[in-house]
Write a structure and sequence with these properties.
The chain is mainly α and 70 residues long. The chain has one domain. 47% of the residues lie in helices and 0% in strands. The longest helix is centred in the middle third of the chain and has 13 residues. It is elongated, with a radius of gyration of 15 Å.
């Protein structure tokens, strides 16, 4: 078990997912009239699931090396 600080986004691979979506998703392509943010984000997350090498890279970041210690 690894004890982590209460707030440590750089130690959480989930934060890499959100950062990627923010850099490549809605921030770069604003919502169209009538388009819902929830639907767009869900679509982007589904698309991300298909990119295994990208997902793997989130877990290979030096700041989350503790994950592979197990």
């Amino acid at each position: 078990m690894h004890v982590l600080p209460g707030y440590a986004p750089d130690l959480n691979p989930d934060e890499f997912v959100w950062s990627h979506l923010k850099r490549t998703g809605v921030a770069r392509n604003p919502l169209r009239a009538g388009e819902k943010l929830e639907i767009r984000v869900e679509q982007q997350l589904r698309g991300l699931q298909k990119k295994r090498s990208l997902i793997r890279s989130f877990f290979e970041a030096p700041s989350v090396a503790y994950i592979s210690d197990c």
